[in-house]
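Hello again, I could really use a second opinion on something today. For a while now I've been wondering how a particular protein folds. Please have a think about how the structure follows from the sequence. Here's the protein in full, and shout if anything looks odd to you:

***
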Amino acid sequence: MVGAAIRNDIRADGIVHFDEAMDCLAEQMSSLGFPYTLYAHIETPRQPDGVFNPLPLTVRNFPNNWDRLWHRFCRMDPYYHACFDTSYVVDWQNVRAESELCAVQQEACLYLEDIGMNQGITVPIHHHGGGFSAVSAICSTSEADWPLLLRQASELVFVAAHRFQDNYYSLYSAEHGMGPCSLLTARESEVIKWVAYGKTVPEIAAILKRSPETVKYHVKNTYSKLGARNRGHAISQAAKLGLL
């Protein structure tokens, strides 16, 4: 099955939307023995203080409600962190075995294992200028069976990931409006700019013609994404990231 997959490259002709490209990538990863596929891209993976920003994920065939609690772990994902130690492949089992994981990272691994995603290969793609992309091929395989699958598939997953990035990143970028403000939604970017101007929540609500509760929701999300403790810290972080 693995040998057959070598001749079954992602088709380039006729693909006009990123979702189509993801479907093709998922088919190829499935043929290699990985039913779950993930693509991620972020322009600014880390904040100025080194804290990781949450990865926006595009997934295929993940278990239902897989992300119900993932927000607890997205910044501390040990497989995400391990990507910044290599340009080849990240072996999930190796990360668990050799890394000194904190309690939250251990919990993240257990969470993925509980939903049937205990083994995987992540291919990090580091961009000039600091941007970061990744492709993950994920499965549920025993610790004993994993080394064989890893040996058979790691090079194929690596090549497929880079071909996918080369062929289809332009589609992703066009459809997702990549740019300096991609860390925040359009509304969150608007809110943090008014915060930087010194406006209060009621004042911002009046300007945007939204309820104070809605503005508070956006402020809270913005602070979380920026890793900010308070208003001043949020403004400082946003300025450092070029979001103002």
